[in-house]
TrEMBL record:
Subunit structure comment from the entry: Monomer.
GO cellular component terms listed in the entry, alphabetical order: cytosol
Protein name per Swiss-Prot or TrEMBL: Glutamate--tRNA ligase
PANTHER family xrefs: GLUTAMATE--TRNA LIGASE, GLUTAMATE--TRNA LIGASE, MITOCHONDRIAL-RELATED
Subcellular location: Cytoplasm
Domain Aminoacyl-tRNA synthetase class I anticodon-binding: 327-471
Binding-site residues, ATP: K249
Primary gene name: gltX
Biological role: Catalyzes the attachment of glutamate to tRNA(Glu) in a two-step reaction: glutamate is first activated by ATP to form Glu-AMP and then transferred to the acceptor end of tRNA(Glu).
Length: 472
């Protein structure tokens, strides 16, 4: 960083309790970009302490999604369940210092307390019954009850921080009750584990969703109790779905890996997601390298970003257009194979790069591009019914017959020779270009909307053209 010698260390700490979606992955993108911009370290930590809801399948989607988006990590993944001994050791230290105490209040007692508080129009909160204080007599310890461990929250003053997204944030300590930091079985809770992890891993900047804002004052108190440095916080505004609701799986959000399978480019998704909460002037399209160069925490947005798949498709289309033809051919190959073309067919000649170059301006995704490429290697063509009815008319038949005969006799198979043949047929038949080009397009590629006819036909090859012209 420009104003300190401390090496920047950021982290992404997802819970594997559901498939990671684009709203989640943005909380990985920003700390990754900040670490790269500052030449620091980016750490991946899997917060898997919710044993009932965590799954290996969800972990796999996290790892696959980050690998696809090239959000490379410097350390990790670390798993919280593998650090339980460390958490319990730190708990014991805090308990020995008198900063943690056992609480024997049962869940039933706690529920009854909250009901009374709500009836009195008070905020429901733990009342400190078991908190030890000088001169205070605690209730008798009930038999057969395993206590929770609570953290002794300061009861006066203010806890505050300067948030990189929200500005100055303050909480009155009197509004915070004593947090449970270990369950009756001794398992530490989320807020405590996070602080121990961030302390041990030397995290300097915590960049995460604003649903964690209410956890932050609790965590600052724990950091202080541990004698740890308090990181810089940036609580990112929520990502909304297209209906204006918080993005979530149950509201239709797709797993990140689904966009990979749907033919989106990783760099395009990074470009689009970067703009959902951060900006660099009016720049909408930029490379990964530009994003890293430009990214800072001073231009994070403060309002929620709304996901728009149509806009993301547009961004993807622009990245497809800008990609070098050979690289695009490499990326589209698995999709072409999935569409029914064998690897042997693709390797039989050098047409793929040229086909890609011809059609990439028309495609939003690699799947779209693969569907065009497939037509040059397979025999099956599905015609658009409306185009067929409009262009494959009785009047078109003699023109098509003349064109088929001219193509069949063509010796020099080049784009220029095909263009000259088309002109000759047009002159001979006394028709204009659309009267020949449109039905030829429908017969050869299934649609009246294609790039230049001579370029398409040159790449398609004489044999396939004649076969498709015969199927009227």
């Amino acid at each position: 960083m420009s104003n300190t010698t401390t090496r920047v260390r950021t982290r992404f700490a997802p819970s594997p309790t559901g498939f990671i979606h684009l709203g989640n992955i943005r909380s990985a993108l920003y700390p990754w970009a900040f670490a790269r911009h500052e030449q620091g370290d980016f750490i991946l930590r899997i917060e898997d302490t919710d044993l009932e809801r965590s799954s290996q399948e969800a972990v796999d989607v996290i790892l696959e999604g980050m690998k696809w988006l090239a959000l490379d990590i410097d350390e990790g993944p670390f798993y919280q369940m593998q650090r339980m001994d460390r958490y319990k050791a730190v708990l014991a230290e805090l308990q020995a210092k008198g900063l943690v105490y056992p609480c024997y209040m049962s869940q039933e007692e706690l529920d009854a307390l909250r009901e009374r508080q709500m009836a009195n129009k008070e905020n429901p909160r733990y009342d400190g019954t078991w908190r030890p204080e000088p001169g205070k007599v605690l209730p008798p310890v009930p038999t057969g009850v395993q206590p929770v461990l609570r953290f002794k929250t300061p009861q006066t003053g203010v806890v505050a921080w300067d948030d990189k997204c929200k500005g100055r944030v303050e909480f009155q300590n009197s509004e915070l009750d004593d947090l449970v930091i270990a369950r009756p079985d001794g398992t530490p809770t989320y807020n405590f584990c996070v602080c121990v992890d961030d302390m041990d891993m030397g995290i300097t900047h915590v960049i995460r969703g604003d649903d964690h804002v209410n956890n932050t004052p609790r965590q600052i108190h724990i950091f202080e109790a541990l004698g740890a440095s308090i990181p810089v916080f940036a609580h990112l505004p929520t990502v909304l779905n297209e209906q204006g609701e918080k993005m979530s799986k149950r509201r239709g959000a797709k797993a990140v890996t689904q966009y990979r399978d749907d033919g989106f480019l990783a760099d395009a998704v990074v470009n689009y997601l970067a703009r959902l909460g951060w900006s660099h002037g009016d720049d909408e399209l930029f490379s990964r390298e530009q994003f890293i160069e430009w990214f800072d925490l001073d231009h994070l947005g403060s309002s929620a970003g709304r996901f728009d798949e149509a806009k993301m498709r547009w961004v993807n289309a622009q990245h497809i257009k800008a990609l070098a033809d050979a690289e695009l051919a490499r990326l589209v190959t698995p999709f072409v194979i999935q569409a029914g073309v064998s690897e042997a067919q693709l390797n039989a000649d050098d047409r793929l790069v040229r086909i890609v170059a011809l059609f990439k301006d028309r495609c939003e995704t690699l799947v779209d591009l693969a569907n065009w490429v497939r037509l040059f290697y397979t025999d099956a063509v599905v015609r658009n019914a409306d185009d067929e009815a409009k262009h494959l008319t009785a009047e078109a038949q003699p023109v098509l017959d003349a064109f088929a005969a001219a193509i069949d006799g063509l010796g020099d198979w080049s784009k220029d020779a095909i263009a000259a043949t088309i002109k000759a047929v047009l002159k001979e038949q006394g028709v204009k270009m659309p009267q020949l080009a449109m039905p030829v397009r429908v017969l050869t590629l299934g649609t009246a909307h294609t790039p230049s006819v001579d370029a398409v036909l040159e790449l398609l090859g004489k044999e396939k053209i004649l076969a498709r012209l015969q199927k009227r």
